[in-house]
């Protein structure tokens, strides 16, 4: 049995926590010098005219959805396979979501379904394109139609910061887009996100709205940083091998909900028709400084992720059961994880655990089938299947190539034993 590596590691470090504590008293001042510097850097990096630093990507999505809301065209097309709170942000802004199914390989919106819904309706005012797992969603075939029908394309690039193709970066090729710098992302400021757009008037409107909100408190930031520190310690080599891994493996094998929920998010989906007061928060200079520092290593870290994703594909793509995605066909994607499908997901994950490997099942739901969104339920079979079969293979930069090779061998042996 090999010593297991965790399914993910945060991008934080001991030095990052130390610097954050030392800078804490000086970075919650009225001046937004670091925020201004970050926004200038983001504009240059993503080649956009405006970048607005926000406290969460979902907050950015709400701000955009609110600014673009049209009473005469209240429908917004979005992926059924996404976090439920992203849907809530659209609902809270006044929109009625129309769910589109996903492509079974890329997990992004199925263009045929999206195109058909755009052409068959006159009440659509916006489309939200999600780049899930850091895999770019190519929406070029609907751009012309959306332009002709005056439909705004918004990009949810929360999981795809830095992903790019010949047209530009994820989040910067539509009318507007959102990025995430949250705790689990490839750039982390504990809380954080950004809005990207080339519409100066829209940006002015969004800044005015956010300016009325209070700045994140030191207590709120410290609590989030403490969560990050706990996760970092729990996934550190010694603690993970002897304690954390065994707890997670026991929880999975014996269906211990209280343990399984520790490694999941968005576990209690609820409908939210109004925007929460607790979300009306502006980010701090300290968060901006953390993002600025990590932008320098974004591209080098993405190369490591792509290499690991390519390794999985090269060694698993001949097994049709896993439904593997080709990194070569999505060469600019950043692959936050490498998604595969396994019919008996729990059995597969338990098998890996017993062999000394830690992987996760995707926690996302088929929002088109959730009771809380019953007013907008629709049939999305690929999303429903993905909810119960998706497994995420680790790609983070510190995941060793040798470990990925061993994981591939065990994954193959699982299928061979099933035959």
Overview of the structural elements:
With about 425 residues, the chain is of the alpha/beta class. About 45% of the residues lie in helices and about 15% in strands. The chain is built from 15 helices and 16 strands. The strands form five sheets. A seven-stranded mixed beta sheet has the order 1-10-9-6-5-2-4, sandwiched between helices. The protein has a three-stranded antiparallel beta sheet with strand order 13-16-14. It has a two-stranded antiparallel sheet with strand order 3-15. Helix 9 (about 235-255) runs antiparallel to helix 13. The longest helix has 19 residues, at about 300-315. The protein is globular. The two termini are about 25 Å apart.
- Count of separate DSSP helical elements: 15
Q: Which strand order spans the largest sheet, edge to edge or round the barrel? A: 1-10-9-6-5-2-4
Biggest sheet, open or closed, and with what strands and sense?
7 strands, mixed
**Structural class by helix and strand composition:** alpha/beta
* Fraction in helix: 40-55%
**Which percent band covers the strand fraction?**
5-15%
Distance between the termini: 23 Å
Average predicted local confidence, pLDDT: 93
* Overall geometric form: globular
Low-confidence stretches: none
| Rg calculated over all Cα atoms | 21 Å
Q: Got a strand count?
A: 16
